[in-house]
Amino acid sequence: MAGAADKTALRDVMRRLRRDLSDELRSLAHAHLTTHLEPLVAAARGPVALFCPTPTEASPLGLVVRFEPNARFAWPRVDTARWPRIPALTFHLAALSDLVPGAFGLLEPPASFPVVPLTDLALIVVPGLAFDHALNRLGQGGGFYDATLPETPATRVGLAYELQRVPSLPTDPHDRPMDLLVTDLGVYTRR
Fold first, then answer.
1. 21 — phi, psi (to 5°)?
2. What is the pLDDT at residue 3?
3. Residue 28: which region, alpha, beta or left (left: phi > 0; alpha: psi -120 to 50)?
4. pLDDT, tens digit, for every residue of 1-57?
5. Which domains does the chain have, with CATH numbers?
6. Mind listing the pLDDT tens digit for each residue in 155-167?
7. Rounded-to-integer distance, Cα 57 and Cα 80, Å
8. How far apart are CA 191 and CA 179, in angstroms?
9. d(Cα 167, Cα 133) in Å, to the nearest integer?
């Protein structure tokens, strides 16, 4: 099992790097992220799961402008029936404008919106604090995506700024590597 102290220290460093990114560079990076994500979304043969970013996270929201209302976007919602015992997400079809403040202050779909079974997702865009060359992911530490990813056959796409790439990460048995990583500099495949 990876050292919790190592992961905590790395999370602190990566949060600081993201936070220190200038607004100008962040805006430019988001434009590049959208450009790199567009072909993946266009090729998806089913619902695409996105997420609403925190103010410092790499954002997939440029895709919404490009593809809504024609795309079927599914958005994560904390599964409060299972949480905090089991950190799990449900995904609901919704327009970005339908999302409301939810768990942890993030925008999420109302519970009444149609649920997309995890087995129906074609692509799942996943946030993270760091990704390594083998496309292992370091998340925020809540375990929500760790609990959800094994339940879906969707192509797992990590989304991050290039500055969040590191040579290697400490991993645990429950960690799932991404199939692809999209940064502002391009698309990476697992080595």
1. -65, 130
2. 63
3. alpha
4. 456 778 999 999 999 999 999 999 999 999 999 999 999 999 999 999 999 999 999
5. 4-189 (3.40.50.10420)
6. 999 999 999 999 9
7. 24
8. 10
9. 6
Amino acid at 36: H
Residue in the block written with tokens 């440029």 = 62
Question: pTM of whole model > 0.85?
Answer: yes
Separation between Cα atoms, residue 119 and residue 153, nearest integer Å? 6
Both tokens of 80, joined, read 């409060």
State the pLDDT at residue 129. 97
- The pLDDT value given to residue 1: 45
Alpha-carbon span 32 to 2, nearest angstrom: 33
Cis before 69 (ω within 30): yes
Q: What are phi and psi of 172, to 5 degrees?
A: -120, 165
Tokens 């590597």 map to which residue?
Answer: 177
Instruction: Quickly list DSSP for the chain.
Output: ---HHHHHHHHHHHHHHHHTS-HHHHHHHHHHHHHHHHHHHHH-SS-EE--PPPTTS---THHHHHHTTTS-EEEEEE-TTTTTTS--EEEEE--GGG-EE-GGG-EE--TTSPEEPGGG-SEEEEE-SEEETT--EE--SS-HHHHHGGG--SEEEEE--GGGEES-----TT----SEEEETTEEEE--
